[in-house]
Structures are given as C-alpha cells and as structure tokens.
Write a structure and sequence with these properties.
By secondary structure, the protein is mainly beta. Among the domains are: about 60 residues, Immunoglobulin-like (Sandwich), CATH 2.60.40.60; about 100 residues, Sandwich (Immunoglobulin-like); about 100 residues, Cadherins (Immunoglobulin-like, Sandwich); about 100 residues, Cadherins (Immunoglobulin-like, Sandwich), CATH 2.60.40; about 110 residues, Immunoglobulin-like (Sandwich), CATH 2.60.40. The protein is built from 4 helices and 37 strands. The strands form 11 sheets. Strands 30, 32, 35, 36 and 37 form a 5-stranded mixed beta sheet that branches. It starts with 12 loop residues before the first strand and ends in a 7-residue tail after the last helix.
C-alpha cells in the first residue's frame, strides 16, 4: 500500500506505478494506493521486482512528491524437487573388491532458495540395490557394501538412488535416478581342462607344420585375464609335435613338427599344460593358475607313395662320353605293409631332359646324347617313382649332373690390351700386366705360364716376366725408343695351361711408341704430332705472337705499378713515422754496448749524464734537443717514471708508439742502504760486516763468508 501525506482522502490525489512488472504482474489502485499481484509469482523465474511509485494531482497532473523506488522480493516456498542433472549414471568396480570400495558420486540439484529454510537441503538414500551397495546421505558417494562380489556369479547391478529435500523430513519433495554398476574382471580363476585325456587320430601322410588337432582349457575370466598359454610338458613323446594358442578362441592348436610313419610307430602320448599369461598376485593363495591334460595320438596307416633313398642325387660325367654310358642310379622303395614294385621315369619339362634316359625297373641313368661342358656345364631334372599297384601314388626327386671338363681349349689373353711405351723408357720398366683365360673348366690349382716365342726372344726390344700367379708383365729391354724409326712393335706371347693334355696358344700384342713427359705421362701417340709445328698456317702464327705481346705488356704494367706503390709507401712513411710500424733487425752489443741509450740514469737518479745520440734509429733532419728537468736527490719512483714518460712524449726521436721502453730503477730509502760498491766512499778494508748477522737467517751464509775474511786478514790490527 502506498500513501502520501498530502492525500486527505477527498480524491484529489492519484497514484501511479512503473517499473518491472507494472501493469502485467502488479497493479495499483489509483485512489487508495493499494498494490495487487494480478498473476502467480515464481521465485525461480524472477526473485525480485524493482518498482517506482508517484502521487500526482488529479486536476493539474503535476507530481505532488518526488518519485519513490521500492523492491518487491518474492519469498521462496518448497515447490521444486531435487533433480539429477547427470543421470542416469554408469559406473564400474573390480570384482572381489573389499567393503567400502569407491564406486561413484552422484549429485542432485534443488532450484529452491538454499538460504531460506530447508527447501534446498538434500539427503540421499538407496531405494534399490541393497545390500550390495551403500550411499553417503550427505555427499552422495556410492560404495560397495558386500565383500568378494564375483563377476562370474553376477556382473550387472542396477541401483536406484533417491534425493529428498527438507532434509529428508516428511513432506519434502524427492527425485530419483538410476546407477548401472558393472563388476570388472580380475584374474581370480585359473584355466581348467574339461577332461583329463584328449584322443586324436592323425593320418601318417599329414604334412609337417599342419594342424592335426585342437584342445581347450576353460577360464571363466574375461579379456586378457582369460588368455591361456599352452606348452607340451618335456619328457614325454611330444618331440614330434608343437602346440600354439589360437588368439581368437584360446584353443591349443597341435601341429606336426616331424613326419609320421605308421610302420615305425603307431601311437604317441604326451602331456599339455595350460596356464594364464597375466597373473594377479592377490590370488596366488588360491592355488597354481595352470592345469594339465594328457593327449593320446593314434597314427592312421595310409597307402603312401614310394620313398627315395636320398633327398637329392648328384652325379658327374665327362664331356664327350659315349652315348649309352651309365653314370648313376636312383633307388625308391614302398614302405607300406604290402610292398609294391616301383617304376621310374624322367619328368619331361624341356628338351634338355632328352640328354639322359633311365631304366624304368632298375633306376639307372645313362647318357642319350654327347655332352659338351662349354655348352651346358650342369643338368638339373626330376625323376618320378610310382607304385605298380597304385600308379597315382608318386614321389619325385631332383637329380643334378655335373659335366666334367676335358682340356680341349688353349688359354688366351683375357682381354685385348692397348699397350704403349714411352720414347724415354728405361730398361726393365713394366709397361703392361696381362692375364689369361681358358674356356675349359679350370680345376683347382691350374696355372698358366707366359713366355716369348722363339723368334721374338732374340730381339732386344721387349721381354715377358712370368709372375707365377697366372699373370705376367711386359718389360722394356732398351734405353729409349723412337717413333720416327718405328711406331709399332708386335710381340708374340706364348701362354700354356697345366692340364692334360697341355694346350698352348700364341697371342700377338701390339705396342705403340708414344711421346711422354719426364713423369711418364703420355702426351701424344700419333706420328702426325711430330710434324705438327711445321704445318701451322700464317694466321695461327700471328695469333700466337699477338698473345705473347699482350702477356708481355701486362707484365710490364704490373711491375711499374708495384714500383710506384712502393715509392708512395716510402714517402708516406717518411712524412709520418707514427703511422707505420718499423722493424729493426740490428743486434745489440750486449752489456758492453752503452752507446744506444743512457743506462746510468735508470740505475741511480743521482748520476745524470748528458743526452747521447741514439744509434737504434735513424734521426731526422729536424731534431729538437731532449729537455730533461733537473732531478732532485731522493726522488720517488713515481716522479721518476713521470719524467721518463714526459721525455718520450716531447722527444720526436723517441721510438714509435708501438715500441716498449723499459726502465729499471732500484729506488732509495733502504735501511741497509745500497749493497753495491759503486760510489762507495770507503774501501773494503774499512767495511764492518757484523751487521749482516742481525738481518736474520737468510743472510747467515753471507755473514759467515765476510766474517771469515775479516778474521783471517793478516794486515788488520786488532
């Protein structure tokens, strides 16, 4: 209700209302000032409204008082139930977890005012899912309530959670949600074989590496906890078999490692062990996570093809062997109980197989044509053996026949050589190393020998040096060769092999005379090159002379520029010696050289001699006398150094700036004064050396030495 002090109740005042919800949510009686709500209010939609009211004159419409602002606050009531905004929930917990293991935390939200009453105070409880799980009424944390829940017994649980406001009191509003909890697997079950003995029947014709049977151990666990590894227990008759794990079915696949033979052994027995790959140390106390079963394999007899005595046959025959010569034989047997005869024949694939024949009954192999090793050195074909009783059962074996060589070809030079010799060659110089090749199949240790032919051995031009390692060197025998006299030399070389019968050949080598430099590098091997300068044209000679003239001009210009640059450098050096570094190479005279500089002034400032001319540098024509300020007696070392620095700064004849002037100054003020005999006013006889004993242990030897001389002086009167 609004009321103005100016309102006398006679109807002269009118009340107006503006702001949030004016006219839509709230209305005002213009005469009495009563404010009414014209529709329902929801605090969760809008918790407060800001309004402005004013009293105006009915007649003049003018405000009687300033506009007033006030707030209408909506008071909360419990009209909203708690809601699980994230529900329904999905959670998991490992099986065999202890009581109180954490599963999940749920949260409900109440839209009511949490600051007013208990409308928003939520309490959690389980409506469905006990006694397996429990929930904290305040925090909403779900935990396990029973120990050792087994996934293999029950895997899925559905828990119904309730959230109630008003602190769970009667009359409060409630909301619910569902939590689906899954027990995850742990390796708490070992693998177990459903039976202790497995019987398998395997034909003896099974191939090596093929699968001959499967066995399976059952593990109720899931995923990697159910992975099983199978092994054959050592010590049994399982060395012919192997077992692997099928990753999809977790079955043990038994494979054959070696061939089976019913006639040799009809049955095998061995044990197989199944164990888990991923063990859980928490369940070691349950027992060993492995199981063992026995496998019995019965070998079935099959009608098998003949078996050759060898997996492969290798034979040898000399080339040019007469047709029909037997070179070897193959043998195959029927190992079945009712042994059958065997027939042999060649597996024809190409025309090469026609070079040989085989006896169908005996299995002997003979030549059918003349063989040439140089044409074909080896023959490789297959022989098939079949049973007479069952021709469809056949077996095959490879036969390799090596054709042995008969020495019928002489050795020859392996490659054509382009041999050359220099005109300035010396005797004994190797100009070419040659090798030989033989078309025959050289046996191990065969050697080739090299020599000159009889007609060439008497000529004094070249010789052949056999190195005894199937190579030879062509050596010179003359001191120099002339291309003008003879350009080409033909050298016959005889090569022999060491096989039987001995074969030899004469190979003629062509040697060309070439012009070389002093290092033996070939410059030209053509005869025309000797007379090349004579045939030069006039234009070519003019071009050569023009190039020579240009080169001479360039050389002259270069020398002139060097001389001009050197002259300019010397002039600049004389004008400003400070900008140059001058190097002096003259050697001093040692300690006796006293003309270069005055060393007396450095030793004792009391002795100052006149300045002398320096000999270490060349003086200029302009020279100023060195000005030396007088030095007082007992001058401090700092004043002495400053004097020398000032002298060098004003003296133009002083060394350049990059020179180092070193001054030695012994100083003065010593308690014992100078030990030097220079400038001494007394003679040696007048000296008293007793004070040396008072200087300490470092002067003990010196005191003893001078004390002895004083004590043994015969002229001294005591």
């Amino acid at each position: 209700k609004l009321h103005s002090d100016l309102d006398k109740g006679v109807g002269t005042v009118k009340y107006t209302l503006s702001g949030d919800g004016a006219g839509t949510v709230f209305t005002i009686d213009e005469t009495t000032g009563d404010i009414h709500a014209i529709r329902s209010l929801d605090r969760e939609e809008k918790p407060f409204y800001t309004l402005r009211a004013q009293a105006v004159d009915v007649d003049t419409k003018k405000p009687l008082e300033p506009e007033s602002e006030f707030i209408i606050k909506v008071q909360d009531i419990n009209d909203n139930e708690p809601k699980f905004l994230d529900g329904p929930y999905v959670a998991s917990v490992p099986e065999m977890s202890p009581v109180g293991a954490y599963v999940l935390q749920v949260k409900a939200t109440d839209a009511d005012d949490p600051t007013y009453g208990n409308s928003a105070r939520v309490v959690y409880s389980i409506l469905q899912g006990q006694p397996y799980f429990s929930i904290d009424p305040k925090t909403g944390v779900i935990r396990t309530a029973l120990p050792n829940m087994d996934r293999e017994v029950k895997e899925q649980y559905q828990v119904l959670i309730q959230a109630k406001d008003m602190g769970g009191q009667l009359g409060g509003l409630a909301g619910t949600t569902t939590v689906n909890i899954t027990l995850t697997d742990v390796n708490d079950n070992p693998p177990r074989f459903p039976k202790s003995i497995f019987h398998l029947k395997v034909p003896e014709s099974s191939h090596v590496g093929s699968a001959i049977g499967r066995i399976r151990a059952v593990d109720p666990d899931f995923g990697k906890n159910a992975e099983i590894e199978y092994n054959i227990v050592p010590g049994d008759g399982g060395n012919l078999f192997d077992i692997t794990t099928d990753e999809n079915t977790q079955e043990g696949v038994i494979k054959l490692k070696k061939s089976l033979d019913f006639e040799t052994k009809k049955a095998y027995t061995f044990k197989v062990e199944a164990s888990n790959l991923h063990l859980d140390h928490r369940f070691h106390s349950v027992g060993p996570f492995k199981d063992t079963a026995t496998v019995k394999i019965n070998v079935l007899d099959m009608d098998e093809p003949p078996v050759f005595s060898k997996p492969m046959y290798t034979m040898e025959v000399y080339e040019d062997t007469p047709v029909g010569t037997i070179i070897g034989a193959v043998t195959a047997q029927d190992l079945d109980a009712g042994s059958s005869s065997v027939r042999y024949f060649i597996d024809w694939k190409n025309d090469v197989d026609s070079y040989f024949t085989i006896d169908a009954t005996e299995g002997t192999i003979a030549t059918n044509e003349l063989l040439d090793r140089e044409s074909t050195a080896q023959y490789n074909f297959s022989i098939i053996a079949s049973k007479v009783s069952n021709p469809l059962l056949t077996s095959k074996v490879n036969v390799i026949i090596n054709v042995l060589d008969v020495n019928e070809f002489p050795p020859e030079i392996s490659v054509p050589y382009e041999t050359s010799v220099c005109e300035n060659a010396k005797p004994g110089q190797v100009i070419q190393t040659v090798t030989a090749a033989d078309k025959d199949l050289s046996p191990a240790g065969q050697r080739f020998s090299f020599r000159l032919s009889a007609e060439a051995s008497n000529k004094p031009n070249f010789t052949v040096h056999d190195y005894r390692n199937n190579t030879a060197g062509i050596e010179t025998r003359r001191n120099g060769y002339s291309r003008r006299q003879q350009e080409l030399y033909f050298l016959p070389v005889v090569i022999e092999d060491s096989s039987y019968p001995v074969q030899s050949s004469t190979n003629t080598m062509t040697i060309r005379v070439c012009r070389c430099d002093s290092d033996g590098t070939i410059l030209s091997c053509n005869v025309e090159a000797i007379f090349l300068p004579v045939g030069l044209s006039t234009g070519a000679l003019i071009a050569i002379l023009l190039c020579i003239v240009i080169l001479l001009v360039i050389v002259v210009l270069y020398v002139a520029l060097r001389r001009q640059k050197k002259k300019d450098t010397l002039m600049t050096s004389k004008e400003d010696i400070r900008d140059n570094v001058i190097h002096y190479d003259d050697e001093g005279g040692g300690e006796e050289d006293t003309q270069a500089f005055d060393i007396g002034a450095l030793r004792n400032p009391k002795v100052i001699e006149d300045n002398k001319m320096r000999r270490d540098i060349k003086p200029d024509s302009l020279r100023f006398p060195r000005q030396r300020p007088p030095v007082e007696d007992n001058t401090d070392i700092r004043d002495f150094i400053n004097q020398r620095l000032q002298e060098n700064d004003v003296d133009p004849t002083a060394p350049p700036y990059d020179s180092l002037a070193t001054y030695a100054y012994e100083g003065n003020g010593s308690v014992a004064e100078s030990l030097s005999s220079i400038d001494s006013l007394t003679t040696e006889a007048d000296q008293d050396y007793d004070y040396l004993s008072d200087w300490g242990p470092r002067f003990k030897i010196l005191a003893d030495m001078f004390g002895e001389e004083e004590s043994y002086n015969p002229d001294k009167v005591t």
